[in-house]
Structure formats: C-alpha cells, structure tokens
C-alpha cells in the first residue's frame, strides 16, 4: 500500500513539474513577442526623437547622449513621426523637439537633454612664456562640450612647433589665442622683400618694423624711407603683392 502511495506522489510531482515547465516556456515566448506585437504609438515618438537628436548633435563631440524629459506615453497617437527643431542650430543642453504626424495636423512637443563629451589638448607640464611646443608637452582631457574652454585645440598639428605666449600651468587647455607662430622676422633686423606682380619680380632689402611668423603681415622700412607691408613666407622673407 505504501508503495502505491509513493508511486502516486511521484507521478503527481512529475506531472506538476511538467506543467510548470510548459508554463515557463509559454511565458518566455510571450515576452519575446511583446516588443513587436505590443508596440505603442509613444514608442515610435521616443525612438524617432532620439534618432533625430543623435544625428543632429553628431558634430558636438565623440559621445553624444540623449535623455527624453517628456512622458511620450501621454501624447496622442502619431503615425510616421517626423521630428524637427523649432529653433535652428545644433541641439545642445535642454532642447524642445516638435513632432509632425501623418494622421493629423497637430504638432506634438518633446523635451530632451542633449550632452556630449569632447577631447581637447592641455599642457602635460608647466610651460613658460616663449617655449616652443613639442609632442611630449601635450596631453588630452575630456569634458562635456558645454565645459570645453573657448578656442581649445583638438589637433596636435595645431600646437606642435607653436610658441606659448603666456605661462601655462599643467593641465591648462591649449588655446589658439595663447599660441603663436615662431618668429621668422624680428623687429629692427634686416629683412628681404620680394615684390611680385604680373610679369615681374623685384627683390629689395629693408628693416622690419614688427615681429612676425609664417603667414603674418609685417611692415618694413626701405632705405628711401618708404614703408611697405608683406606676408612672411617659410624662408623669413616678405612677399609683397601689387
């Protein structure tokens, strides 16, 4: 009799386990099917808004992040949402996005926050005024685009071989307005001027009236007292155009 009871209990337990397993499988299948089968109109608005802002803000920096601040589930149904920016410009910080829909003329509005991180060059060590930069003097820092220093450089070629115009502490941003080209022409020293035009070229000697690096405009006084202005070339001469 005991054997019969034990066998009955074992059969009931096995059957219960099979029912539980079947239920779990059916539940998992239902969950897997939910995103496609139960997609709601507000999902389309949210997805379209994120995709739109990501593409519009791609130029801000390396890592763009979009966070929706509006509850899109409360918005009216929207078929084929078409996001747009009420104000022109690259979206940054707190923004408002308009949504046009194919099913009616009402415009929906979604609030979002757009942030991005950027890299820029900083001084790897303390730098003195007049120092000429080399690659080992440069380092990188990353920050949100809203905290990027004005005129900060993000390309080493913009800094290497430039001269620092003011003292920089370690970690300070390398900015275009804190650097200059090395001087090839020095005030008070002789300078060669090459005057060229259509069909002629004349070379004269003068005295530089100001300092200048490659591409800078420098004035020079001629032996007869005339003052000419030219652009410094790679060889430290002044090119004068007529």
TrEMBL record:
Gene3D superfamilies cross-referenced by the UniProt entry: 2.30.30.760, Antifreeze-like/N-acetylneuraminic acid synthase C-terminal domain (3.90.1210.10)
Alphabetically ordered keywords of this record: Bacterial flagellum biogenesis, Cell projection, Cilium, Flagellum, Periplasm, Signal
Claim: Amino-acid biosynthesis is one of the keywords in the record: no
Location of the protein in the cell: Periplasm
Protein origin, superkingdom: Bacteria
Pfam families: ChapFlgA, ChapFlgA_N
Domain SAF positions: 118-180
Alphabetical list of InterPro entries matching this protein: Flagellar_FlgA (IPR039246), FlgA_N (IPR041231), SAF (IPR013974), SAF_FlgA (IPR017585)
Chief localisation class: periplasm
Stated family: Belongs to the FlgA family.
Role description: Involved in the assembly process of the P-ring formation. It may associate with FlgF on the rod constituting a structure essential for the P-ring assembly or may act as a modulator protein for the P-ring assembly.
This protein's name: Flagella basal body P-ring formation protein FlgA
């Amino acid at each position: 009799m005991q054997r019969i009871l034990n066998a009955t209990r074992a059969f009931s337990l096995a059957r219960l386990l099979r029912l539980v397993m079947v239920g779990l499988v059916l539940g998992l299948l239902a969950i897997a099917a939910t995103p496609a089968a139960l997609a709601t109109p507000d999902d389309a608005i949210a997805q379209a808004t994120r995709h739109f802002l990501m593409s519009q803000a791609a130029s801000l920096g390396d890592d763009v992040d979009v966070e929706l601040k509006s509850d899109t589930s409360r918005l009216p149904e929207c078929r084929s949402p078409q996001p747009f920016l009420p104000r022109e410009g690259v979206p940054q910080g707190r923004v408002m996005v308009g949504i046009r829909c194919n099913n009616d003329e009402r415009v929906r509005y979604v609030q979002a926050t757009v942030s991005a991180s950027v890299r820029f060059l900083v001084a790897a060590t303390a730098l003195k005024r007049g120092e000429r930069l080399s690659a080992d003097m440069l380092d990188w820092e990353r920050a949100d685009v809203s905290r990027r220093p004005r005129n900060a450089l993000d390309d080493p070629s913009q800094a290497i071989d430039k001269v620092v115009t003011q003292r920089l502490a370690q970690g300070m941003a390398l900015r275009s307005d804190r650097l200059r080209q090395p001087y090839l022409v020095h005030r008070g020293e002789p300078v060669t001027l090459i005057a060229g035009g259509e069909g002629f070229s004349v070379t004269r000697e003068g005295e530089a009236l100001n300092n200048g690096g490659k591409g800078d405009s420098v004035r020079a006084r001629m032996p007869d007292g005339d003052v000419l202005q030219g652009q410094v070339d790679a060889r430290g001469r002044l090119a004068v155009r007529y």
